[in-house]
């Protein structure tokens, strides 16, 4: 059984480009008896925060201590979120560009689940090692203004490099990135969108 976790970061529901592209991928694999799909809509209110208690817990754990009281409770919430992430064999992340980077709910998820002994190991001499090795990921990235080859007055991409770095840091090596970045002024939007849908369906064959 392959467990696919679709993590969606757009709050735009039916109007979302990234969500509709990701849904084409899910539709292509959902009928398979060997695939189980979980959808984590990061706007559904289930994602815990990561504030003073959680940060204190993280620093305690890093120092080899047990978090206590409110910090322990916050740590349990982080563990529960990581457990849902870790239960998957493959990830589908649908992510719009927000202000050159990613929507804050996705950064919140990353801050909640990226924990020592869970997502990464750490050695004072060798540095970090990702603990999600063996899992794979498909990134569906959208933007409306930024696009490769456009002048920097159309923006700079901190979305794709950040997410690809995070997955690499976590040990996920098999990553396919599919972009849909129609320029606001292009007359080729439908063609570019159709090409992205084709890429998604093709990627789904490799799950
Ligand atoms: C809060 C916000 C910030 C955005 N920032 C950018 C940006 O920096 N660069 C860009 O090209 N598009 C930006 N956009 C446009 C979206 O990236 C684009 O419309 C994308 O396709 C939205 O994905 P979605 O339809 O899945 O929500 C922004 C949109 C929103 C709502």
Briefly summarize what is shown:
The chain has helices spanning 17-30, 52-62, 69-86, 104-113, 160-169, 189-204; strands spanning 2-8, 35-41, 90-96, 120-123, 127-130, 136-142, 174-180.
Describe what you observe in this structure.
This protein is α/β, with parallel strands linked by helices. It has one domain: Rossmann fold (3-Layer(aba) Sandwich). 38% of the residues lie in helices and 21% in strands. The protein is built from six helices and seven strands, in the order βαβααβαβββαβα. It has helices at 17-30, 52-62, 69-86, 104-113, 160-169, 189-204; strands spanning 2-8, 35-41, 90-96, 120-123, 127-130, 136-142, 174-180. The strands form two sheets. A five-stranded parallel β-sheet has the order 2-1-3-6-7, with helices on both faces. The protein has a two-stranded antiparallel ribbon with strand order 4-5. β4 (120-123) and β5 (127-130) form a beta hairpin. α1 runs parallel beside α6 and α2 packs across α3. The longest helix has 18 residues, at 69-86. It starts with a strand and ends with a helix. The model has no long low-confidence stretch (mean pLDDT 96). The site of flavin mononucleotide has 17 residues, from α1.
């Amino acid at each position: 059984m392959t467990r696919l976790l679709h993590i969606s970061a757009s709050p735009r529901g039916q109007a979302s480009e990234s969500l509709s592209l990701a849904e084409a991928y899910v539709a292509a694999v959902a009928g398979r008896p060997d695939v189980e799909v979980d959808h984590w809509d990061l706007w559904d209110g289930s994602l815990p925060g990561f504030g003073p208690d959680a940060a204190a817990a993280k620093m305690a754990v890093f120092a080899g201590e047990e978090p206590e009281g409110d910090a322990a409770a916050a740590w349990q919430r982080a563990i529960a979120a990581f457990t849902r992430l870790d239960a998957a064999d493959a990830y589908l992340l649908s992510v719009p560009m927000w202000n050159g980077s990613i929507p804050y709910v996705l950064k919140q998820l990353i801050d909640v689940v990226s924990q020592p002994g869970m997502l990464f190991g750490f050695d004072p001499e060798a540095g970090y090692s990702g603990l999600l090795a063996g899992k794979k990921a498909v990134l569906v990235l959208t933007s409306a203004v930024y696009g490769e080859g456009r002048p920097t007055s159309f923006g700079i991409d901190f979305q794709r490099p950040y997410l690809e770095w995070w997955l690499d840091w976590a040990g996920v090596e098999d990553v396919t990135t599919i972009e849909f970045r129609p320029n606001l002024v292009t007359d080729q939007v439908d063609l570019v969108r159709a090409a992205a849908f084709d890429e998604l369906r093709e990627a789904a064959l490799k799950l």
